[in-house]
Amino acid sequence: MEARSKGVLEAGEAEAGMVIERRFTTAGDNPFDVFDWIEMDVEIRNPDGSMADSIEGVKLPSGFDGVAGKVCAQKYLRKAGVPRALRKVPEDGVPVWLQRSAPDHEKLQTLEGDERMGGEVDGRELFRRLAGTWTYWGWKYGYFASEVDARAYFDEMCYLIASQRS
């Protein structure tokens, strides 16, 4: 599939694609800044009560305390295989903020072997990963009228996930 690039519009012309109206976020602001974030240790137990797994230092919005935090940590945070250093993969027609990431092997080589990979422990990583994937593919398929609309979609999705409205 080819990435498309948006042309310059003349007055009165309309471009195909979704126009995203912001409801919960403001352009230029971090959608996560409106939340109080807590750090918790999550214990995942088997039906018999024995410990199946534990994740220390999970950072989530305060609304994720209790069962929501446990489910989020257990089911959705990547437990392993996340490179500690990433680089953007340049793609024609894809805004820098939306470009895919790949392991930065040069930077990873400067880290000790056991420090190169890990798991997600911050909900912001998870929420950006999900919203970023949806936005990236929406961009690639031409679903957005403009980059501004793609960014609005990304920010709104991050907010909706963090507020448990999605």
UniProtKB/TrEMBL annotation:
GO terms for molecular function: cobalt ion binding; ribonucleoside-diphosphate reductase activity, thioredoxin disulfide as acceptor. It holds the Pfam family Ribonuc_red_2_N. InterPro entries: RNR_2_N. Residues 42-164 form the Ribonucleotide reductase class II vitamin B12-dependent N-terminal domain. This is Ribonucleotide reductase class II vitamin B12-dependent N-terminal domain-containing protein. It comes from marine metagenome. The lineage of its organism: unclassified sequences, metagenomes, ecological metagenomes.
